[in-house]
C-alpha cells in the first residue's frame, strides 16, 4: 500500500514538480499551498506524513506543526525548508517534528524519511490500539 | 537640519540589521528558486528514465513546460540577485543623486518577501524627482517606514510607496495604505538619528506615512 502524504508549500511550481516526482515513486500526494487548508485536510483525512515548509505566508510552519499535533498527535511532520537554522530545527523537534531537510533536497533522502515516518506512525497507532484494548479489558473486568 | 558627524555610530547596528534582514530574505527567495529548478530538473530526469525503461517516447510538450519553468525561476532568482547587488552597492558613495523612480522600485523589491509573508500587496506608486542624499541612510529610513506599514496594513492589505519633489530640492516619500487606527510609537534613538542625519521630517496622516527628506549639502558620514 502506498504511503499517503500531505505536501504543504506556498510555491505552486515546487509543489507540482515534487508531487509528480513522489507520485512516480509510488507515493500518494495531496498538495496544498496554504497551511490553513492543510489543517482542514488533516482533520478529515489520514496521512502517513506531512511534508511542510517552514516559512509561509500567514500561518508559518512552526505554528502549523503545533496545530497539527493537537489534531493528530501521531502525525509525522517533516520540515522541508530553505531557511534551515539550528534554532528553528531545535524548536521544531521540541514541538514534535520528525525531521528537517534543507531545500533543495535530495529526493532519495526525502523518500527515506517518508518511509520512516510511515513506519513510525504505524508503531504509534498500534500502541494506541493496544492501550485502548487494555483499557477496555480493565473497564469490563474481563 | 542637524547633521551627525559620526553617522556610523547611529548606522552601525541599524545598517548591520538592515543588511542582515535584506540578505536573509533574498537568500531565502533564491533557495526557493533553486528548489523549484532542482525539482523540475529532477522530474525531467525521471521522465527520461521512465521513457527509457518503458520504451515510450517522451512528451515534448511536457518537457517544454518543464524547461520553461526552469527558465522562469532562473529569471526570478536573477532578479533577486540584481536587487541584492544594488542594495550591496548603496554604501559605495556617501552622497549621490538618487533617482526616486529607481529607488522606490528597489525599496519595494527588497521588501517583497516580507510583504508576501505578511500577506500584503506592496507596490511602487508614482515616483518622480531626484534627491541628493546618502543612499544607504535613505534606504534605512524607507525600510523603517515600510516595516511599520507591513505590521499595520489597512483592511485592503495593499500598500503603495511613492515619491515626488517637494519643490525645495527635496522629496516627499509616502507610504499609503496603513490602518488609520494603527499606533505610531515615537521613534527609537536609531530611527531619530537616521531622521536627523538625513534631514527628514516624518509625519502620519490617516493611513499614510509621509517623510519629507531634504537634500544633503555634504555627506552625513565623515
How would you summarize this macromolecular structure in one to three sentences?
Chain A is of the alpha/beta class and 142 residues long. Chain A has helices spanning 12-24, 35-44, 61-71, 86-95, 107-140; strands at 4-8, 28-32, 49-52, 76-81, 99-102.
Radius of gyration of chain B: 22 Å
Biggest beta sheet attributes of chain A: 5 strands, parallel
Instruction: Walk across the major sheet of chain A and give the strand order.
Output: 2-1-3-4-5
The biggest chain-chain interface is: A-B, 20 and 22 residues
Q: Sheet with the most strands of chain B?
A: 5 strands, mixed
| Rg of chain A, alpha carbons | 16 Å
Instruction: Estimate what percentage of residues of chain A fall within beta strands.
Output: 15-25%
Low confidence ranges of chain A: none
**Series of H and E elements of chain A:** EHEHEHEHEH
- Helicity range of the residues of chain B? 40-55%
Low-confidence stretches of chain B: 1-5
Number of helices of chain A: 5
Structural class of chain A: alpha/beta
Quaternary: heterodimer
Order of helices and strands of chain B: HHEHHEEHEEHEE
* Mean residue pLDDT of chain A: 90
Shape by Cα distribution of chain B: elongated
* Helix content class of chain A: 40-55%
Q: What separation lies between the terminal Cα atoms of chain A?
A: 35 Å
Amino acid at each position: 500500500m502506498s504511503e499517503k502524504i500531505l505536501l504543504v508549500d506556498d510555491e505552486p511550481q515546487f509543489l507540482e514538480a515534487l508531487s509528480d516526482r513522489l507520485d512516480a515513486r509510488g507515493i500518494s500526494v495531496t498538495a496544498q499551498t496554504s497551511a490553513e487548508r492543510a489543517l482542514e485536510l488533516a482533520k478529515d483525512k489520514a496521512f502517513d506524513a506531512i511534508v511542510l515548509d517552514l516559512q509561509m505566508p500567514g500561518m508559518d510552519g512552526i505554528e502549523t506543526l503545533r496545530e497539527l499535533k493537537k489534531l493528530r498527535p501521531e502525525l509525522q511532520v517533516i520540515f522541508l525548508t530553505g531557511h534551515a537554522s539550528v534554532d528553528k530545527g531545535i524548536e521544531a523537534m521540541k514541538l514534535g517534528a520528525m525531521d528537517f531537510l534543507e531545500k533543495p533536497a535530495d529526493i532519495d533522502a526525502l523518500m527515506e524519511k517518508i518511509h520512516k515516518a510511515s513506519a513510525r506512525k504505524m508503531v504509534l497507532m498500534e500502541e494506541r490500539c493496544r492501550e485502548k484494548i487494555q483499557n477496555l479489558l480493565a473497564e469490563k473486568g474481563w | 537640519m542637524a547633521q551627525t558627524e559620526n553617522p556610523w555610530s547611529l548606522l552601525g547596528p541599524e545598517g548591520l540589521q538592515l543588511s542582515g534582514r535584506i540578505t536573509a530574505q533574498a537568500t531565502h527567495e533564491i533557495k526557493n528558486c533553486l528548489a523549484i529548478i532542482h525539482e523540475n530538473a529532477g522530474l525531467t530526469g525521471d521522465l527520461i528514465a521512465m521513457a527509457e525503461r518503458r520504451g515510450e517516447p517522451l512528451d515534448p510538450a511536457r518537457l517544454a513546460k518543464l524547461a520553461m519553468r526552469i527558465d522562469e525561476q532562473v529569471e526570478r532568482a536573477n532578479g533577486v540577485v540584481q536587487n541584492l547587488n544594488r542594495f550591496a552597492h548603496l554604501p559605495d558613495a556617501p552622497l549621490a543623486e538618487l533617482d526616486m523612480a529607481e529607488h522606490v522600485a528597489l525599496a519595494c523589491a527588497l521588501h517583497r518577501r516580507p510583504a508576501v509573508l505578511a500577506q500584503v500587496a506592496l507596490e511602487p506608486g508614482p515616483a518622480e524627482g531626484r534627491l541628493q542624499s546618502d543612499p544607504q541612510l535613505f534606504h534605512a529610513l524607507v525600510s523603517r517606514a515600510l516595516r511599520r506599514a507591513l505590521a499595520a496594513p489597512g483592511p485592503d492589505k495593499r500598500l503603495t510607496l511613492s515619491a515626488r519633489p517637494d519643490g525645495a530640492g527635496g522629496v516627499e516619500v509616502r507610504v499609503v495604505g496603513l490602518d488609520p487606527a494603527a499606533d505610531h510609537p515615537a521613534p527609537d534613538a536609531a530611527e531619530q538619528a537616521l531622521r536627523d542625519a538625513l534631514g527628514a521630517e516624518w509625519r502620519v496622516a490617516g493611513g499614510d506615512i509621509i517623510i519629507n527628506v531634504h537634500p544633503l549639502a555634504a555627506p552625513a558620514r565623515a
